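Thread title: Can someone regenerate the structure for this chain?

I was given the following input by a collaborator and told the matching structure tokens would be attached. They weren't. Posting the sequence so someone can regenerate them.
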Amino acid sequence: MTQIIILSGFLGAGKTTLIRRLAETCWQGKKVVLVENEFGEVGIDGPFLRRTGLEIRELTSGCICCSLIGDFTDALCDIAARLAPDIIVIEPSGVAKLSEILRAAQLAAEKAPLALCCAVTVCDAGLCQDYAESFGEFYLDQIHHADLVLLSHAGETDAETRRGAAQFLAQHSPIADIIAAPWQDLDDAALRDVLEGAAEKRRARESSPEEKAGAGHGHARHHHHDHGAGRTFVSWCRRPTASYTADGLRRLALELSSGRCGRVLRVKGVVPTPAGNWLELDVSAGRADIRPGCEQPEGAICVIGAQLDESLLDAIIEKPDGTE
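Best answer:
Regenerated them for you:
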């Protein structure tokens, strides 16, 4: 029986970093397939995660919980039949609704030898309350339906902020275990324990008489729900002709975070350098991470946000030296 683990989280929360940690530690020796859904036309994280040995399936033509939900359910069944992995990890788009991802996974489990293990949501310790206020349902749905909530960037906040975040999340998550300590500080055994604890609680809920009595009605509750992420968030992707130095990428990150181009929530990119190497860029909440990248057929930069000035974005990415 293939286990399904869903790792959700809003834009820039740290899902990809967590997946890499789990792949390198907790899932060693297991056959794992990652189903990754980018909100945009270009997948960026696949090459980064393939270094861990994960087998990647990318969906980039839309959000899982919108038009792709039927195709996504079929894809899970196909992966189970052809590859028979020990674990399928689903990394949905940062603007996906966890309730709809759960529905798709449950539909797939009715058709194939699949079992939903647990749903994990990663929340930025310093931003979760601001994001909940700004984005409401899109953000809170991922918290409300999680079995486990892990705080990211907790090491960059003080103890009072972490306590406030944990209390806020507990108010909006009736079933989840909430780990307020930085998950990066958990050793491998502790991380495995919190995942298994969440999975055990889900198994107990699903086997309870109350849950069984409600089975058969759960899917219909959400079937006609209008997700609407495409109307709230915009995904802008380009393949720049310019090459970038690390300093050029830092300037680009500052420019994109300045507000001139609209409300930029997330930037991902992989670009060539003048020396013929490759760099990866990851920007969220004004934090920029630049790291060595794998060689690609061509570069790509993707921006997710609201009220984006696409003509200004076009001009900026082709000016890596910061000139206008």
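Residues 2-229 form a domain with the Rossmann fold fold (CATH 3.40.50.300).
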